[in-house]
Write a structure and sequence with these properties.
A 4-stranded antiparallel β-sheet has the order 2-3-1-4. Strands 5-8 form a two-stranded antiparallel ribbon. A two-stranded antiparallel ribbon has the order 6-7. The two termini are about 30 Å apart. About 20% of the residues lie in helices and about 35% in strands. With about 140 residues, it is of the alpha+beta class. The protein has helices at about 20-30, 55-70, 120-125; strands spanning about 1-10, 30-40, 45-55, 70-75, 80, 100-105, 110, 130-135. Helix 1 (about 20-30) runs antiparallel to helix 2. Bound molecules: iron/sulfur cluster (2 copies). The site of one iron/sulfur cluster has 14 residues, from loops.
């Protein structure tokens, strides 16, 4: 059975320059789509990615990451838009790295595609009327 999940990986500084992602993909036959990356030598690294593959490979891959010391966080929280507050100003569109927020050229309204959202929360900070909300 195939599985696909969005997860956040936190790399402690000692692991940032090691080929962990290379081994994850090569040795566990998984496919990954990196949604966001923040990696600086000697500092904690962060990767938000979608990891897909056969269930048993996925589980082995997660075990491998845990064994080497990567902290794994599920993207369990949801980002929701408070429609009553949104003024369709567009400020969130430019900060969204996942393309989940887009401006409709015809209506000039901002569309929110929840399926593309990686819950990075950048729009929450960028939205002037605080229309983007984090729900747990
Ligand atoms: S920044 Fe806030 S108010 Fe502006 S379009 Fe985005 S969600 Fe709506
Ligand atoms: S949290 Fe906001 S900025 Fe981040 S992916 Fe979702 S909609 Fe885009």
């Amino acid at each position: 059975m195939a599985i696909s999940k969005r997860i956040v990986l936190h790399f402690p500084p000692r692991l940032v320059e090691q080929p962990i992602i290379y081994r994850l993909v090569k040795e566990h036959d998984l496919v990954l789509n990196i949604l966001k990356a923040s990696v600086t030598p000697k500092e904690e690294g962060l990767l938000i990615l979608e990891l897909s593959g056969a269930r048993k490979n996925y589980d082995k891959g997660i075990q491998y990451l845990t064994d080497v010391g990567v902290r794994i966080q599920s993207l369990g929280q949801n980002i929701m838009r408070n429609e009553a507050r949104c003024t369709h100003c567009g400020a969130c569109v430019v900060v969204c790295p996942a393309g989940a927020l887009s401006l409709d050229p015809d209506t000039r309204m901002v569309n929110f595609d929840e399926d593309k959202c990686t819950a990075c929360e950048l729009c929450v900070l960028a939205c002037p009327p605080r229309a983007m909300e984090v729900h747990f």
